[in-house]
Amino acid sequence: MESPIRIGIATAAVFGGVFVGLGLARFAFAPLQPALVAHGWFSASTSALLAAANLAGYLIGALAGAHLARRFSVTSLLRVLMLIVALSFFACMDRSLPFVWFFLWRVASGVGGGAIMALAGPAVLAHVEASRRALIGQISLFGVSLGIIVAGALMPVLLTDGIPLVWLVLGSLALVATAITWRMWPPSPRREAAVVRPPPGQRLFYLQYGLVAMGVVPQMIFLVDYIARDLGRGVSVGSSFYLVYGAGAVVGPLMLGFVAGRIGLRPTIRMALVIQFIAVGLLMVATGSVVLALSCFLAGLGMPGLLAGFLLRSQQIADGDLLIHRALWGKATASFATGQALAAFGTVYLIDTYGEHGAAYPVLFVVSTAAMAIAIALDFAIRK
């Protein structure tokens, strides 16, 4: 095992990678999405399509991560991926460019996020003793929480000076994080001579993680757009609720990490599943501010903890072997990306078909709640 200082530096690198690849590339887009409509950049359906494009790229990145790692240094890959995400923000500053330009760069940012998620966590956890993996996993995924808070706090301020400034600031933040973490990544693991396959018999695990992905889409992707446009409360109000989501995302990993140390990983994951089920279920029953705030906070509690919990479970299934874990986690990340993409593109289709204030978000909430219910039931069928 590495020294605590080296582990701390490597954990900070993963934190930075997750902050760029997920916290900024995906979560910071949530409050920007309705603003693109309000400022006349895109229609409701095309702005939602840009959100879904990131998820399509995430799937590509998750599938490609293991293949790329067999051919290139993982450390170099992670650096390049973070640079691609940063560049994707700068590339979107010119409103006059065609829609396909924005779509492809949103896909590129998703590719970066998916590959970072597939490669970064296993690369660090392999150097950490078992008793500290839960803590390290939770800390590294705080990059998601930071991205949510940055987006919720800065977006209303930045939007007063126009959307190009938003793209510029997001790109600059990503570039700074990339520079800071450039030399902090741990040494690349050995490259396997042949394809390393994940352990067999994990189909229910992959399915469950894909269902969880469908369950977190409402708050993760469309929360601000739903509040700002469907409920007619505006981007500023939607961003304030996103801050509540971010507050939950800060408290959640700490709380669930503490609980995991007392009752174990599997019961803690079940608790997080139930929390997310309640969070998305609340969106079906009421639209009052108190209910929305509670839904946002609970979703924040559950979501980052679920990501960390499944990362740690995949590490357990792989019995600590880095290459097997990378293969297993890459496949699980692809399943997660598939679930997200199905839910997101389905929502885009409904928005395009029925228009604003139509059936899109109510249907999404029902589907996501059902997906979480099935994921909870599946957990009792998974043996390991």
Write a brief caption for the model.
Helices cover 80% and strands 0% of the residues. It is mainly alpha-helical and 384 residues long.
Structural features, described:
This protein is 80% helix and 0% strand. α2 (29-38) runs parallel beside α7, α3 (44-69) packs across α5 (99-125) and α7 (142-159) runs antiparallel to α11 (234-263). The model has no long low-confidence stretch (mean pLDDT 85). It has helices spanning 4-27, 29-38, 44-69, 74-90, 99-125, 133-140, 142-159, 163-181, 203-221, 223-230, 234-263, 265-285, 289-317, 322-354, 360-379. The chain has one domain: MFS general substrate transporter like domains (Growth Hormone, Chain: A). The longest helix is centred in the C-terminal third of the chain and has 33 residues, at 322-354. The two termini are 25 Å apart. The protein has 384 residues and is mostly helical.
